[in-house]
Amino acid sequence: MENLALIESFSEFKDDKLIDRVTLMAILEDVFRNALKKKFGSDDNFDIIINPDKGDLEIWRNRVVVADGDVEDPNQEISLTEARRIEPDFEVGEDVSEEVKLIDLGRRAILALRQNLISKIHEHDNTTVYKKFKELIGDIYTAEVHHVRHKAVILIDDEGNEIILPKDKQIPSDFFRKGDNVRGVIESVELKGNKPMIILSRTAPSFLEKLFEQEIPEVFDGLITVKKVVRIPGEKAKVAVDSYDDRIDPVGACVGMKGSRIHGIVRELGNENIDVINYTNNTQLFISRALSPARVTSVTLNEENKHAEVILKPEEVSKAIGKSGFNIRLAGQLTGYEIDVFREGVEEDVELAEFTDEIDQWVIDEFKKIGLDTAKSILDREVSDLVKLTDLEEETILDVVRILKEEFED
Question: Which SUPFAM superfamilies does the record associate with it (predicted)?
Answer without folding.
Answer: Nucleic acid-binding proteins, Prokaryotic type KH domain (KH-domain type II), Transcription factor NusA, N-terminal domain
